[in-house]
Amino acid sequence: xxGAGKGNAVPGVESLSVKEIxxxxxxxxxxxxxxxxxxxxxxxxxFALLCEEAGIDVSDVYAxxxxxxxIRAKQLDVQSITITGGTDKDxxxxxxxxxxxxxxxxxxxxxxTGSGKTQLLxxxxxxxxxxxxxxxxxxxxxxxxxxxxxxxxxxxxVAQVSQSMSFLLNVSVGEFIELHASARATGNDDPERTIxxxxxxxxxxxxxxxxxxxxxxxxxxxxxxALMVADAALVSCSPVILVDEIENAGIDRxxxxxxxxxxxxxxxLASHDPLLALRATKRVVLRNGAMQAVLxxxxxxxxxxxxLEDRERExxxxxxxxxxxxxxxx
Amino acid sequence: MKLVVVGGPPxxxxxxxxxxxxxxxxxxxxxxxxxKLDCMVAGDEQEYARGGFEAIAxxxxxxxxxxxxxxxxxxxxxxGSVRAFDLLLVESAGLCNRCSPYVRGLLGVAMMDxxxxxxxxxxxxxxxxxxxxxxxxxxxxxxxxxREVFRLRVAAINRRARILxxxxxTGQGALGLADLLDDAAEYSDEGPMHxxxxxxxxxxxxxxxxxxxxxxxxxGNVRLMDIPEPPHACGHTxxxxxxx
Lengths: 330, 244
Hints:
The complex is a heterodimer of chains A (330) and B (244). Chain A is α/β, with parallel strands linked by helices. In chain A, 40% of the residues lie in helices and 14% in strands. Chain A has a six-stranded mixed β-sheet with strand order 5-6-7-3-8-9, with helices on both faces. In chain A, helix 9 (191-205) crosses helix 10. Chain A is globular. Residues 1-12 and 69-76 of chain A have low confidence and may be disordered. Helix content of chain B is 31%, strand content 16%. Chain B is of the alpha/beta class and 244 residues long. Chain B has a seven-stranded parallel β-sheet with strand order 3-2-4-1-5-6-7, sandwiched between helices. In chain B, helix 1 crosses helix 7 (174-182). Residues 240-244 of chain B have low confidence and may be disordered. In chain B, strand 2 (32-38), helix 2 and strand 3 (54-59) form a beta-alpha-beta unit.
């Protein structure tokens, strides 16, 4: 991010409309409002003209949106993720040597426990360069990722919800969200709003609410997981999302996935849940640490999926009744 | 010969992480030697030997490993030169986190355990502040968000350093460290080497083995703690303003 967007680094931008710039840097409206310039009704106006009329310096506005604009611009760019060149646990080449996933696809990872689902997610999170136990290489848009993409949280393309069920950091929930937003350089135009939005989202996923002053480490397993989901969706806010066995979390799985897997994102979901496996665009079968095959929903599986969805609705209804202290039979 | 100094609190995963990175360098045909400086118990040099690296150990015993390193570095370099290593790596298991063992002009790498807590980067001081690169270990045990927050805390203390994340169990991320070591500066024998940060002074009776404790027995470089005056018998301090 060094130097990117500083001062008048993007020549020609002045000629764009307010709306065009705020598509590129969503915090523009907020920044202008803070400078006393409401943008409502001026969306189609020229940005330069608006600044001139309001008597503010264009480069001041650039400086304020600089932390966000280059990152968002980068994040929109992921068209494909390719996993290639892996080996199984015995060092033999994995049967599925290359897997290419396009923007908008959700991939379910299926296989017995210990079959390598989590390792594949770890490879994706770190954008592996052959330096993991699986020896896989991960390519972004067909090319090796830059070091910045791999390591700098502000440029990361991947958000991950791991199987971890607890936090270790000795801070409050609010401080944690603010720190992470600052690491990711997202939502820091208005930290208090970000904190509120993340906590609100988390509390709709788990039954028992918590607040910004709750200590991070005392959250229950489900609350921690709910916060991790909300944080990955709203703070990490990346084009690639990795989710490891969300069904084990004791949180509302449907709502969690709605929050995480947005339009145009690439999602990888490791799961033992037949419903998640069938709803995905494709499912990848793992065994002995290796990708064996890739399957798409076919033939009678569609009917099975409809049947499973009916059952799921019923199970959710019964679980809700039991959780709220009711009886299943009147 | 490249000369690299690696420091970090005990049990931060230094040896495990270095074994993976050095393994990658060995595959590139590099001849690597290791010197491990420890406090009381040796043994890590055998781990390096098992990994196929020539390694020796030094025990500081009653001297801090970082001070011990500063005293012996010229002799260590001489050993490495005779052995004609491509890379000589010196690993110090620092003690009190007030020293930094890095030498001017040569690559200095700090290791930090992600589980050590949010406030640790601030507490370790020059060990972290004066490093060229910081390796974060055990990140696999926390959520991605916590890993990123810890990284931010490290970056706040040392903005200049490259920050790497390496898993000491699987070696994930070790490639970045191997590349860094391969790019390290060569040792040059023009005049004495300089520490980047002075060692704290600690020459007193107890450094010399005194076992009876108390201020009346301390000699040499003695620092007395500031302890507030006790309150009067009536329960009030004798001058409220002065205490405030």
